[in-house]
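User: I'll paste a sequence; please echo it back and then give the predicted structure.

Assistant: Echoing your sequence first, then the prediction.
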Amino acid sequence: MIHTLLAAALAAGALTGAQSATYAAAPVGKAAAAKCAKLVVTGKRVAVRRPWNGDSSASWDSPVHHYVRKGTKLRSCRMTFNRDRNGEYRKCGKIGQDWYLVRGGQIPETCVRKA
């Protein structure tokens, strides 16, 4: 019994140490800004969508938060990668699966280009 408790305590300590090392290695300030993508909207009028409750990624039928017009400049530091067939959408004349996370929600990758 004591060996089991000791093993659990050591495992918890190792996990906490690994987590703190991960957070310490995360870029901050200018390094974080360098990893962000500057985007320009290519579609005529594109919906920025919020994922349904509990979902990590938006889909073609997710609620619309707001719209952005062609030429609008956005910044995104993260993407969602949907690799299942159900996550596929057709937006701005192209078929895609991935979404950029932007202020207010998510925007289809096919409707923006990197600036």
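The chain is about 25% helix and 35% strand. The first helix runs from residue 2 to 25.
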